[in-house]
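In line with agreed milestones, the collection of sequences with tokenised folds has grown. A representative record is reproduced below.
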Amino acid sequence: MKKFLDKASKHYYQGTPLISDAEFDSLAAKYDYNSIGYTVTDGIPHLYKMYSLQKVFSELDLPSNLKEYVCTPKLDGAAVSILYVNGLLALALTRGDGNVGKDITNKIKVLVPNEVSVKETIQITGEVVASKDIPNARNYASGALNLKDIEEFKQRNITFVGYDINYTVKEEGRSYKEHTLKTLRDFGISEVSTFDVSNYPTDGFVYRLDSRDKFDRLGYTAHHPRGSVALKEQKEGQVTQLLDVTWQVGKSGVVSPVAILDPVDIEGAIVSRATLHNIDYIRSLDLEIGCNVEVIRSGEVIPRILRRVT
């Protein structure tokens, strides 16, 4: 199962996810999987590592001192880092494995200011996002960063939204909300606390300590900063019975399994079929004909089996 989840994680960070976030989170919890990102062998190191966020699925698991935290929407796009040196945009990278990413400088220059007022070396991190009116908006945004034709990239309807700045010079007393996010706005960069996310895909909320001093003192685990956490949205599915599994040939010629379900109403739509991705996914959920399953509509459109219900 680790091999399958490693593969799913790799495709997620490449912008071609095999399974939905909800499915991945469900399997990761079931199999205690916590590997982050994937190994990049032909990339460039980030000046500051891009960590993943610790995920929780209940408000009961949030820090008890929430008054010290800033809450912002968790945008669902493609994470990138942007390096400014002496006020000039010098390098932009995809997230990759958090340590190393691929050079996308020529594309990011289209989305953000090429010059900022701060002369010290800084790394801005944020998300490239596309409107949720676009089908598979996250794939659309990630796919844009992989385009070779810069003119084609310019035609893509995508936006960069910043959420953090790492400084080479540490100053005490900096506030995340009043300094970091305000600085992004001063640079002319959209930032996550004031950006209108109503028409962009989100998958929860981020809670981060407002005091950068406290944030830095807490430090990091191997994967996560200790001073922030992501409260993930967990959609409630409907339970129905798996009646059969058929196989269909897609446009690319790939043969994939499809679940035949006892019809069930999910958010006003009658669902009788759901994707099963591949045989590894079927095995990971321990599915068999006649068992009960929980079904969700991923992205409010595509029906997917989240888990087996015993």
Remarks:
- The radius of gyration is 21 Å.
- The chain has a mean pLDDT of 86.
- The chain has eight helices and 15 strands.
- The helical segments are 2-14, 21-30, 105-108, 137-145, 150-154, 176-187, 212-218, 279-284.
